[in-house]
Design a protein that fits this description.
single chain; alpha+beta; Aminopeptidase; six-stranded mixed beta sheet; 4 helices; 6 strands; 29% helix
C-alpha cells in the first residue's frame, strides 16, 4: 500500500502521464489506494501479472499483463514510467524482462501491446524490447479534443498453453 502515494504523485497529477491512454487510475490518492489494493487482492490469481519498477529504491513505473485469453494463450501488456525517468531505458528493460518471463516461464505464446501513434517513447520501448508492429486502427483513440491511430504490437513466444 505504500506505493499508492508515489503512484498518485508521479502518475496521477501530471497530464502527460495519461495523455495517450485517456485513463488515470491514480487521479486521486483514494483511486491510487484502490488500484494498489486491487493488485494485491489479485496476487492469488495465477494469471495476474503486475510489477512495480524501482530504481535506487524509488518507484519509477509499473508494468503488467492482463486480459489473459486461455483459448488463444495470449495476454496484453501495458506499462507506465514517471515523466522524470523517461528516456532512461526503464521501460525497455522492464518490458524485455516481462516478455521473456511470460513467454519462457509462463509459456504464453502471444503477447500484445498497443499505443497511440503519437506516443514516440512507447513505440521506441516496444520495438527495442522485441515487439513487432502488427496493425493500425485508424482514429481509434479519442482523448479530449485529440484523435490518434492505435498501433498494435506483438511478441511471439514459443510457449504452449499453460495449465491451470
Amino acid at each position: 500500500m505504500e506505493d499508492a502515494a508515489p503512484l498518485h504523485e508521479g502518475f496521477g497529477i501530471d497530464p502527460a502521464m495519461f495523455e495517450y491512454s485517456g485513463w488515470n487510475p491514480y487521479a486521486t490518492l483514494g483511486m491510487a489506494e484502490r488500484t494498489v489494493a486491487d493488485a494485491i487482492a489479485n496476487y492469488s490469481d495465477p494469471h495476474f501479472y503486475g510489477w512495480a519498477i524501482e530504481h535506487e529504491g524509488r518507484l519509477v513505473g509499473n508494468i503488467g499483463a492482463y486480459d489473459y485469453d486461455t483459448e488463444e494463450n495470449a495476454v496484453e501488456v501495458g506499462m507506465s514510467i514517471e515523466k522524470p525517468s523517461w528516456g532512461r531505458g526503464f521501460a525497455t528493460e522492464a518490458l524485455e524482462a516481462v516478455l521473456h518471463y511470460l513467454a519462457d516461464d509462463e509459456k504464453i505464446s502471444t503477447i500484445t501491446a498497443w499505443c497511440a501513434s503519437d506516443n514516440i517513447g512507447s513505440i521506441r520501448a516496444l520495438v527495442k524490447a522485441g515487439m513487432v508492429e502488427k496493425g493500425v486502427e485508424k482514429n481509434a483513440i479519442t482523448i479530449g479534443n485529440s484523435t490518434f491511430d492505435k498501433l498494435w504490437f506483438e511478441f511471439r513466444g514459443e510457449g504452449t498453453k499453460k495449465d491451470g
